[in-house]
Each structure stands twice: as structure tokens, then as C-alpha cells.
């Protein structure tokens, strides 16, 4: 195994659980406090830290930590927290959009507009490069976090982030004239 821990101790098969527990106990409180400063939600902060430790445990054989374990864990909690915040923004934008649509559902052109929107979005998605389209669909339709997408597609996290940025830019360009701001925020934020 290649995972270096704290003072460059390596997880060994027979000592794996004890070493993992030591790292967990040494870092959990600080990571939780850090996540709380980002999320301002004690329960979700705890969940983000637990997610990071679960991923570390599951991927021990595949993760190589080249810097300090503390730095790795704090960076992981930071990204986990930001992904959660992005998810909340998408959810909130959708709720706002849904409320707006319900308020204006008496409009007789609504079904036609929705059908045209679906067609335009489908066309815009088909025009994306394959990798961009796949990553966008996994993020927006399957609601996967960037790290989960990177793991599934066996790509670096930075590649997933760059491809999402590219997909969002291209979709904004193709749909900007058609979409009201609330839908654009929901789909492309």
C-alpha cells in the first residue's frame, strides 16, 4: 500500500485499522471545525468529514499522499464542502424555478415553451464534445460530485472541473437567448 499517514507512517495490512483510527482521532475535531466554518451547519460538517474518511478508508490501496496527511484531509474536506454548497445552490435554484413555474402555470403557452426548452437543451447537449457531455450529465442529472465523477471515469479531479467549466460555457452560449435567468441558474450554475 502507498498511503503515507501523519509522520509518514504507512498503512500496513495488520496495522491498518489501528493506524486509520489514530489518524481519525487526531484529525476529526479540527476537520469538523474547519467544515463548520465553511458550511455553518454542524451536522452537515460532520457528514462531510465522515465522507472524506470513508473515501480514505475505501481507497487506501489507491491513494498516494505526497504531502502531509493533515494537508490532504483539509483539502479533501474543503472540496467536499464546496461540492455540497454547489448542490444546495442547484437545489435552491430549481425550487425557485419550480415555484415561479407554478405561479405562472395558467399560461397556455407553457407546454409549448417547455417542449421547446427540452428540444433546445437536448440539441445543445448533443453538440457538446463527448467527454464534456458525459461529465455534465453525471453532475447535473445523476447529481454526482466532481470527485465521484473523477473516480467513476478514472480521471483527475482537475480534468472533471475543467470539462464541467467547458460544458457550462458552451451551454450558456447556446441557450442564453432562450432561457430565463432562473432556469439558466438551475441548469448551469
Detailed description of the structure:
The protein has 189 residues and is mainly α. It folds into two domains: 1-89, Orthogonal Bundle (Rna Polymerase Sigma Factor, Chain: A); 104-189, Arc Repressor Mutant, subunit A (Orthogonal Bundle). The protein has helices spanning 16-39, 42-58, 69-103, 110-127, 130-140, 146-153, 157-175, 181-188; strands spanning 4-5, 9-10. Strands 1-2 form a two-stranded antiparallel sheet. The model is unreliable at 1-13 (pLDDT under 50).
Can you list the strand order of the major beta sheet? Answer: 1-2
Q: Which word captures the global form? A: elongated
Beta-strand percentage range: under 5%
Order of helices and strands: EEHHHHHHHH
Counting structural domains, the number is: 2
What is the name of the CATH superfamily of the largest domain?
RNA polymerase sigma factor, region 2, helix turn helix motif
CATH architectural grouping of the largest domain? Orthogonal Bundle
Please write the CATH class name of the largest domain: Mainly Alpha
Query: Poorly predicted ranges (pLDDT <50, ≥5 residues)?
Result: 1-13
Terminal residue distance: 39 Å
Write down the overall mean pLDDT.
78
Please outline the major beta sheet.
2 strands, antiparallel
Number of E-type strands: 2
Instruction: Determine the CATH topology of the largest domain.
Output: Rna Polymerase Sigma Factor, Chain: A
Instruction: Give the helix proportion (percent range).
Output: over 70%
Computed over alpha carbons, the radius of gyration is 21 Å
Alpha-beta classification? mainly alpha
Count of DSSP helices? 8
Amino acid at each position: 500500500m502507498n498511503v503515507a499517514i501523519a509522520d509518514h507512517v504507512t498503512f500496513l495490512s495488520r496495522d491498518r485499522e489501528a493506524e486509520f483510527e489514530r489518524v481519525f482521532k487526531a484529525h476529526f475535531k479540527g476537520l469538523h471545525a474547519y467544515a463548520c466554518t465553511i458550511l455553518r451547519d454542524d451536522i452537515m460538517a460532520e457528514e462531510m468529514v465522515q465522507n472524506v474518511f470513508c473515501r480514505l478508508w475505501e481507497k487506501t490501496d489507491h491513494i498516494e499522499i505526497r504531502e502531509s496527511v493533515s494537508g490532504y484531509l483539509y483539502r479533501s474536506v474543503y472540496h467536499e464542502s464546496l461540492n455540497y454548497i454547489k448542490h444546495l445552490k442547484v437545489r435552491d435554484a430549481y425550487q425557485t424555478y419550480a415555484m415561479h413555474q407554478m405561479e405562472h402555470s395558467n399560461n397556455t403557452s407553457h407546454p409549448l415553451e417547455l417542449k421547446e426548452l427540452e428540444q433546445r437543451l437536448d440539441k445543445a447537449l448533443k453538440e457538446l464534445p463527448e467527454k464534456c457531455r458525459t461529465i455534465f450529465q453525471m453532475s447535473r442529472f445523476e447529481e454526482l460530485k466532481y470527485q465521484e465523477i473523477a473516480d467513476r471515469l478514472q480521471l483527475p479531479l482537475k480534468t472533471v472541473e475543467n470539462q464541467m467549466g467547458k460544458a457550462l460555457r458552451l451551454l450558456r452560449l447556446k441557450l442564453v437567448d432562450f432561457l430565463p435567468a432562473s432556469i439558466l441558474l438551475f441548469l448551469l450554475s
